[in-house]
Amino acid sequence: xxxxxxxxxxxxxxxxxxxxxxxxxxxxxxxxxxxxxxxxxxxxxxxxxxxxxxxxxxxxxxxxxxxxxxxxxxxxxxxxxxxxxxxxxxxxxxxxxxxxxxxxxxxxx
Length: 109
Prior knowledge:
mainly alpha
């Protein structure tokens, strides 16, 4: 259980750093992701997979699969636009996908 909690904290902190980076970019005219942003996306994906592996028989697949797909899309955008200016549509897409993924994780059905 301790390992699960540590991985969950790392997952949550990486997610907060990513969301914080998007929030810091909000007032800027020229929005540009840091080159290390891809590592946050990969960290979120890997820790998410580890969390699923640690809870395997009791996994809510209806939450895990859409959330993983959203993080994969977010990581792809981060990889493509790493170190490059973000178009407004991509920036708002990243924010929307991040918020949707967090809502999937938080709400119980």
